[in-house]
Design brief:
By secondary structure, the chain is α+β, with helices and mostly antiparallel strands. Helix content is 21%, strand content 36%. It has one domain: Roll (SH3 type barrels), CATH 2.30.30.110.
């Protein structure tokens, strides 16, 4: 399927001009305008190019480390099952960890409990330290 870079670019320009701060915290799950990306980088979906993410680490009011979510349960060892998020079985896509600007945030879905956030952070650290991903 062809990627709609032109329409995303128009949306991205509008987001960049948005100046109102969004208040968010670590462990929250938000819909973000993730956009259309290159190759195997995870994309947002639908008309608003959106995907849910976990706010893994808040750097400041403008920027955070995000872990995108998917409902696709493919057998990838890089997907960490999270249980239900907004009524759907969700998986954290460990290979798509990235910095996000808070202007991309647009709707809070919920929050991970403290234990779940610890597990996600530990798995993320282990992955980034060069260990093998978890196995289902």
């Amino acid at each position: 399927m062809a990627k709609d870079f032109d329409r995303w670019n128009e949306k991205k320009k509008a987001l960049n001009g948005h100046a109102e701060p969004v208040y968010y915290h670590e462990g929250e799950i938000w819909w973000v305008h993730l956009g259309v990306n290159i190759g195997f980088e995870i994309d947002g979906k639908a008309a608003n190019f959106a995907r849910p993410v976990i706010v893994l680490r808040k750097y400041n009011k403008h920027s955070f480390l995000a872990l995108p979510l998917t409902t696709s349960a493919s057998g990838s060892a890089w997907k960490l099952p999270l249980g239900l998020v907004a009524g759907k079985h969700a998986f954290a896509v460990m290979s798509q960890l990235r910095n996000i600007d808070s202007r991309r945030l647009y709707q809070k879905i919920g929050s991970l409990n403290a234990d779940a956030l610890r597990v996600v952070r530990a798995e993320t650290f282990r992955m980034n330290a060069g260990s093998s991903p978890h196995r289902h």
